[in-house]
């Protein structure tokens, strides 16, 4: 492990380049998932892929690929804004390395490593969602009528919000300079490794909140936006997130318990 140099501010030009890149990545991803949600509601107007249900037809590798791409692009859209402070801090440190003629790496390599972590999560999420269609717990629009499934997911998400694991992962996401000081590795491979490492903390922080989409509708754009905003605020608000975690955790547990009470046991 190498120690990064003292941090100085980025030039306006560097900030503009990095911010523009992040906006482009997130913006294109948001446009795609918004279009996909619209197309699913307007299949009479466009030819849209839909997950096969039950005995309609067998799942194929193409179906799984399309499901993975849906999750992955959605994760890019939701998580790119929240990783912006970390990306900006990495760019600042890397810029200082470059000025000192020390090994450095372009920012996109760090971001690529981060997004690989979410690609791995998307594979896992797709593998979970796949059989739910087969047993008809999710319909082709990716909504569920199962109070048992929805309630169990909400309870799980609520409990996880209160765990030490959530707290530890969130702290890594809230302290960009501290993370880089502890995990810094020189060069391009080091930048990729740091991005991947940080991405794994981010997945550890947010996976349960993403699972809530299986309860409220995977392509429910209102909830996609609400969760994305909440994840961002969790990471950037200046006060301790403990109270926020406890309140949201309790709210999810109560909501999940209510839906479980509606299940015909």
Summarize the structure.
This protein is mainly alpha-helical. It has helices at residues 12-41, 61-99, 107-134, 147-161, 164-174, 176-183, 187-216, 221-236, 242-261. The radius of gyration is 20 Å and the shape is globular.
Question: What is the makeup of the main sheet?
Answer: none
* Alpha plus pi helix count: 9
Which geometry do the CA atoms define? Answer: globular
The proportion of residues forming helix, as a percent range, comes to: over 70%
Q: Point out poorly predicted stretches.
A: none
Could you state the order of secondary-structure elements as H and E? HHHHHHHHH
What Rg is obtained from the alpha carbons, in whole angstroms?
A: 20 Å
Distance between the termini: 55 Å
Report the portion of residues in β strands.
under 5%
Q: Got a strand count?
A: 0
The pLDDT mean sits at 90
Structural class: mainly alpha
Model description:
With 265 residues, the chain is mostly helical. It is 74% helix and 0% strand. The chain has nine helices and no strands. The chain has helices at 12-41, 61-99, 107-134, 147-161, 164-174, 176-183, 187-216, 221-236, 242-261.
